[in-house]
Structure formats: structure tokens, C-alpha cells
């Protein structure tokens, strides 16, 4: 498996259950491993949101194609418009001799390697991620699962019936790739009876409390919605001690561009690139801001109030 990761140019990770600690822990561990190998890696936050990190949208290109030889080209620009003048060498020309198209509105994610976690057959992957990955039918697949019903559809099939997915991953890793952060992630998905695996991960510096942080992360991701270009999540109850871990995942792993996290009906942590939005938050909520991120508290806070300020 590791050799396939090393050869890949772009790696996609898809999980079948966004609410399962084992699935998410396995995906995040693979995310870190791919980063260690200096590979771009893409992961889906939840069923309703797209793959992250997102590809940057390119500016639209207006392409005019003329099926005639052109003698001269010039343009005339006003405050609100631009006219393009093409002088044809042939005096006979009609509308059927040219076409106009808009291209490059979006750049789709194209991964040559896709890691699937917890899927039984390829049809399930089509349904879950077919719209997110441009070349899902041509990519090589590493298939990680723990069911005897698995159809072994991947180039590499890592199947251990009844084991945790985290244990399946651990059994196929090179030891030198596992640091304390990766060990903690994998450990959080390991089953109670997988004692030997847990002991080995503990020796690598794995910490058991990561499982609680991942549960909080799952809740945040599954409640996250997109409002324009801002991703917002509202949690009625969230341990403050879990927030740094969640912020690290959002910013450093998934590269969510702009986000607002509201929790416990009064606290808000945000990261916004738009200077106007930062100023609105600062003035209205008396927020503390540093490096485009910040925090504030207000009793009975909800996302509608925050979003209304940003309009």
C-alpha cells in the first residue's frame, strides 16, 4: 500500500460512514500519512458538502472560435463592456462560421489514487463520490474494509473480517511512518478487544483521549453547512478542550477556506479572509481578532445572528 501512496500524484479518501469514529480516524490517519509523503490529499467532510481542500475556481474564459482566416483583431473597451472586432480575409462570412463558449468555470478534482474506507462494492463508491472525483473510473483504488462481503474491487484490497478499520490500516503501515499523532488517531478507532494493536500504538505515543476529540469533530463536520463561501457549524454542546483539535483539522488538514464554529449557545470561533467581514464581526461582537481568526462570546448566540451581520 505504501508504495502505491508514494507513486500517486493526487490522493482521494472516501469513507462510507461519516458518523463512525473508526471510519473518520482511519481517514485522518491516512491524511497525515499522505502529507508525510508530500502528497496532495482530498477528503469529503460530509454527505452534503464537497471534497476538501477545494480546487480553486479559475476565472471564466470566453472563447470565440472563427472558422475563417482572420486578417486583423482589435477591441473597444468601455466602462461596462468590451467589443472584440475580428476582420476576416474572406468577404463571405456568416454566423455559422463562428461559435462562442465559456470555459474553465471550475476545476474538478482528479485523483489517480482513491482510498475507499468501509465500502463493500464499487457501486457504493459511485453513489457516494462519483460526482466529486472526475476520474473515479480510471483511478487506482486501495480498498480498506472489515467485511467478508467485500467484493475486492481495488487494485489493493486490505480486508480483515471483523477487525476495526484502524487495525487493518495499522497492519499495513511501515513502522517508521507512525508518529504519536498518527498513533493517536489510529488508536481511537481500535476495538476494545484488539489489545496487542492498542499496546503497540501506545508505545508509539498514541493517546486514548483522542477518541473523544474525534467524536466532537464528527459532530462539527456533520452539522457544517455552506453559506456562500463560509462554512458554519453550530453545536449546542461542545467541550472547550476539544476545540483546538477541531480547529487544527479544519485549517491544517482540510484547509476549509473560511469557517465559523458556534458552540454552547454563546461562544464563537471563526476564521475569515474577507477584511470587511472581519471588521463587521469585530465591531458588532467586540471580537478579538488575530491573523484573520478570532473569538467572542455572547449569550443566546445562534448562526442566524452571525450570518445577518455578515450580509
What topology emerges from the helices and strands here?
Elements: H1 2-7, E1 11-15, H2 21-36, E2 41-44, E3 51-52, E4 61-66, E5 70-77, E6 82-88, E7 98-103, E8 113-117, H3 122-129, E9 140-145, E10 156-159, H4 165-170, H5 180-189, H6 195-203, H7 210-222, E11 225-227, E12 230-235, H8 243-253, E13 259-263, E14 267-271, H9 275-285, E15 288-290, E16 293-297, H10 303-310
Parallel strand pairs: 1-2, 1-8, 8-9, 9-10, 12-13
Antiparallel strand pairs: 2-3, 4-7, 5-6, 11-12, 13-14, 14-16, 15-16
Compact summary:
By secondary structure, this protein is α/β, with parallel strands linked by helices.
Describe the structure.
This protein has 311 residues and is α/β, with parallel strands linked by helices. It has helices at residues 2-7, 21-36, 122-129, 165-170, 180-189, 195-203, 210-222, 243-253, 275-285, 303-310, and strands at 11-15, 41-44, 51-52, 61-66, 70-77, 82-88, 98-103, 113-117, 140-145, 156-159, 225-227, 230-235, 259-263, 267-271, 288-290, 293-297. The protein is built from ten helices and 16 strands. Helix 2 packs antiparallel against helix 5 (180-189), helix 5 (180-189) runs antiparallel to helix 6 (195-203) and helix 7 packs across helix 8. The model has no long low-confidence stretch (mean pLDDT 88).
Tell me the radius of gyration.
Answer: 24 Å
Q: Could you tell me the number of beta strands?
A: 16
Largest sheet data: 6 strands, mixed
Which CATH class of the largest domain?
Alpha Beta
Overall spatial form = flat
Q: In which range does the helix fraction lie? A: 25-40%
Q: Hey, roughly how much beta strand do the residues contain?
A: 25-35%
The overall pLDDT average reads 88
Widest sheet, order of strands: 3-2-1-8-9-10
What is the number of independent domains? Answer: 3
Amino acid at each position: 500500500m505504501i508504495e502505491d501512496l508514494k507513486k500517486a500524484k493526487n490522493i482521494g479518501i472516501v469513507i462510507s460512514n461519516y458518523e463512525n469514529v473508526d471510519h473518520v480516524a482511519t481517514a485522518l490517519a491516512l491524511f497525515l500519512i499522505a502529507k508525510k509523503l508530500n502528497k496532495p490529499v482530498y477528503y469529503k467532510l460530509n454527505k452534503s458538502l464537497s471534497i476538501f481542500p477545494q480546487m480553486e475556481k479559475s476565472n471564466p474564459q470566453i472563447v470565440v472560435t472563427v472558422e475563417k482566416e482572420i486578417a486583423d483583431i482589435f477591441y473597444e473597451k468601455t466602462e461596462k463592456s468590451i467589443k472584440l472586432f475580428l476582420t476576416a480575409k474572406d468577404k463571405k462570412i456568416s454566423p455559422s462560421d463562428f461559435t462562442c463558449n465559456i470555459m474553465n468555470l471550475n476545476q474538478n478534482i482528479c485523483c489517480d489514487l482513491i482510498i475507499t474506507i468501509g465500502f463493500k462494492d464499487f457501486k457504493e463508491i459511485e453513489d457516494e463520490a462519483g460526482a466529486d472525483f472526475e476520474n473515479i473510473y480510471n483511478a487506482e483504488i486501495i480498498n480498506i474494509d472489515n467485511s467478508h462481503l467485500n467484493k475486492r474491487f481495488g487494485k489493493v484490497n486490505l480486508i480483515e473480517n471483523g477487525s476495526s478499520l484502524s487495525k487493518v490500516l495499522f497492519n499495513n503501515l511501515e513502522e517508521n511512518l507512525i508518529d504519536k499523532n498518527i498513533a493517536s488517531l489510529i488508536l481511537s478507532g481500535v476495538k476494545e478487544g484488539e489489545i496487542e494493536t492498542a499496546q503497540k500504538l501506545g508505545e508509539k505515543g498514541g493517546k486514548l483521549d483522542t477518541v473523544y476529540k474525534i467524536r466532537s469533530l464528527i459532530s462539527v463536520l456533520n452539522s457544517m453547512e455552506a453559506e456562500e463561501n463560509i462554512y458554519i457549524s453550530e453545536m449546542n454542546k461542545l467541550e472547550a478542550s476539544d476545540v483546538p483539535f477541531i480547529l487544527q483539522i479544519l485549517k491544517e488538514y482540510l484547509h476549509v477556506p473560511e469557517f465559523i464554529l458556534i458552540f454552547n449557545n454563546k461562544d464563537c470561533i471563526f476564521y475569515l479572509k474577507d477584511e470587511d467581514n472581519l471588521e463587521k464581526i469585530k465591531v458588532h461582537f467586540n471580537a478579538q481578532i488575530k491573523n484573520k481568526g478570532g473569538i467572542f462570546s455572547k449569550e443566546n448566540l445562534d448562526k442566524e445572528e452571525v450570518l445577518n451581520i455578515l450580509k
